[in-house]
Amino acid sequence: MSAPTALAPLTGVSALLDAVGADAPHLDVRAPSAATASFAWDAGTAPRQGEPAGDGPAVAVPRTVAEVQELVRLAARYGVSVVPRGAGTGLSGGAGAQADQLVISTDRLDRIVEVSPADEVAVVEPGVLNAALNDRLAPLGLFYAPDPASWRISTIGGNIATNAGGLRCAKYGVTRESVLALDIVLADGSLVSVGHRSIKGVTGLDLVSLFVGSEGVLGIVVGATVRIRPLPVARRTVTAFFASTAEGVTAIGAITASRVRPSVVEFLDEPTLVGIDAAQNSDLRARGAALLLIELDGFGIDEQTAELTAALEAAGARVRVESETDAEVFWELRRSGRRFDERSWFAGGDVAVPKSRIAEMFAGFSAIESRHGVEISAVAHAGDGNLHPVVTLPIPAGADPANPPAALHHAVDDIVRAALALGGTVSGEHGIGTVKRALAAEELADRVRAAQFAIKSALDPVGLFNPGKAL
Amino acid sequence: MSAPTALAPLTGVSALLDAVGADAPHLDVRAPSAATASFAWDAGTAPRQGEPAGDGPAVAVPRTVAEVQELVRLAARYGVSVVPRGAGTGLSGGAGAQADQLVISTDRLDRIVEVSPADEVAVVEPGVLNAALNDRLAPLGLFYAPDPASWRISTIGGNIATNAGGLRCAKYGVTRESVLALDIVLADGSLVSVGHRSIKGVTGLDLVSLFVGSEGVLGIVVGATVRIRPLPVARRTVTAFFASTAEGVTAIGAITASRVRPSVVEFLDEPTLVGIDAAQNSDLRARGAALLLIELDGFGIDEQTAELTAALEAAGARVRVESETDAEVFWELRRSGRRFDERSWFAGGDVAVPKSRIAEMFAGFSAIESRHGVEISAVAHAGDGNLHPVVTLPIPAGADPANPPAALHHAVDDIVRAALALGGTVSGEHGIGTVKRALAAEELADRVRAAQFAIKSALDPVGLFNPGKAL
Fold this sequence. Notes:
Two copies of one chain form a homodimer.
Chain A: H1 11-23, E1 29-30, E2 58-60, H2 65-77, E3 82-85, E4 102-105, E5 112-116, E6 121-124, H3 130-137, E7 142-143, H4 156-162, H5 169-172, E8 179-185, E9 191-195, H6 207-211, E10 220-227, E11 229-230, E12 235-242, H7 245-257, E13 264-268, H8 270-280, H9 284-287, E14 290-297, H10 301-314, E15 318-321, H11 324-336, E16 344-348, E17 351-352, H12 358-363, H13 365-372, E18 375-381, E19 386-394, H14 406-421, H15 437-443, H16 446-459
Parallel strand pairs in A: 2-4, 3-4
Antiparallel strand pairs in A: 1-2, 5-6, 6-10, 7-11, 8-9, 8-10, 12-14, 12-15, 13-14, 13-18, 16-19, 17-19, 18-19
Helix pairs in contact in A: 7-10, 13-14
């Protein structure tokens, strides 16, 4: 073991690296350096252009579950805390690590172990990309339902850690509803299997659901049995344009009051349409001041279309059933969205509210805009009350792009508090990570937080996994 | 406080009763006696005719959440463990209590607090009957999906405690998928709210899912916000009769391979059909040796029927789309089922296996029948691989009905072990309670059980709630 250096907090990491070099050279562990800087952040906390990046953490890229166990035991022995990491596409800082920590990356645990159409399950390692699983399933007429916006680049393991939502969860549920069983490495290095390959099962406490969405604070998921479904027999895209944001938001309630449950219900407000047109050279705003972009799927697609159209038209919409070609254009505009470039400061949100309160959320934006001198736009996964507001502010000439004014973040906080006041939540689907811990503390009662910490301590008594995150 | 009596274990209960009498006469707490004997068991552990029933536990029937808190604090103070109880319709002994315990019944916490079609939620107290909620929702065109066989007589709180399944969960999921938020009284008497009224939310660990199915060992659910859905636009019953149990079981895979996902897929094997005919004077066995009783719902009911019928006929079935009148007869026969009377010993099971292994489960029954000299029949919630086998044995003249031979229970154990060997689970939907604890220990690894106990201890350090159950 090397002598202590001036970097006291790194002693543990140095000792761990020495031990790996001496006794476990088969492990791929990279020392903290500028080369690991990107492991200090995720997609939500990456530095802006011009911001300095320091040394990153130590990074291990195990090839097997046994190597994950070995790394966890070494980290515990040398007192180095562990940050599990998938693709790093999270938006709340959950996968970011400091120089005195060890990242365990799931990059090389990327096998699709099995696809069983007869059991309606797939068995995967955590580093499998969501898109890779769906590419494998599609030729079999099957799909894996959770579809976070990051689905092309995010991993199943990361989706599980954050209980990722997405567009289709209005109909198919969030990640939790698609996970049947997990293999997990716990803080003592032991490997446990929880849950069932059967669709149902109630033996003991539901540890699968507890681990889904736990943001890596309870253990590392090293395997998952997920539920797969037959591809719908038909899909259809319906657009509904409205004369105003307010009118469009009200129409969301008309869908709820109908008997149709679309697979996707995306609401885009007026500034979002204007922003997309500017970025993509489209003409959405010319067609209306707000848009509900809806996908129906399944049997009886004509019946569904008729009932949905009637409900929307009664709410004042101009409704169109899109051709496949036009539908693809709309979904691509939705995915690519606005561009937030170096000319603006911006900050995003991820609140969810009870469905009947969506209108009040949008109606409250103008007061927050006035108070803080910012602009707010939002898209909403309207089928489940999940809004993604974006607060923007043009960067004046000469200002430092890396230092947005406090008003930007105060506006985000006000949006979150508005959601809480309406019976909503700090995070609909992105998770708490580091970014939303203070606001989560406003949402959760002290006794609830104490219960969460007690569970964390019960499973990870020394606080090895992802300290300072989620809870 | 009264002097200790000969009944040493009851000291705590006596002291608690004295304290209630002296300081809290508003609490309705009944002393252990023959009058509370029925609280010693549930529907799965009730004594047979002729079996003696001893004194039951102390029983409290609080009127308010505050009274529940008060009772929990009193129980903790006097060292009396608490058994939460809904309607007592459970089948695994989870709600049974001993003379030195305090039952807290949710009987009087039976208000439907709110129904919000716009938010797609209902807010209920735990003692609300599942049927009462659906009676309230039906005129609004809505329903609450979880439908355990006991739905007319079981409570939402009990359904939550056991994560109850039912027939429709093949399509709509089990109770967990319909619970958004819970109010819970913890072991220190504190009242906490966990979860969200919004459909989505990922703030901190998922305590809602942890409490669902926890069988009363972590706290008492005193309020629930559950998800409600629009009634399907159409329902249709399809029957498929087969020449043999084996042929019928194989056809289950044909449904899985199709793109139709029925709301209900019930499989009845040959001895079940014979038993129903004997009890109900029906003619099912004359129509075939095995039956798939299927309900389709939703849009495109004709398209669904056509695809399902084609899949089933290709698998050898005689398929009929039933009229509404005939459909009602079939569902009533399924619900009323066989009768198990005083002429037979019987014992039931609740295993679940991966869907592709259902055929092997049924094929394995004859060897177990031969080994133990019993008869086995089974119905299966085939859509999710959940079997309810029943082991029977005629009672010879002069034998004691209250003392079945060990062979009966050995046969049940062998069925469970067969399910485990096929990758299945001890309990698909009834829970562990007291009845299946030994078998659960065969399913779960020691490290998993240790993790479950650690979580129990974290939330209930003194073991106040439902000791000896579930874990």
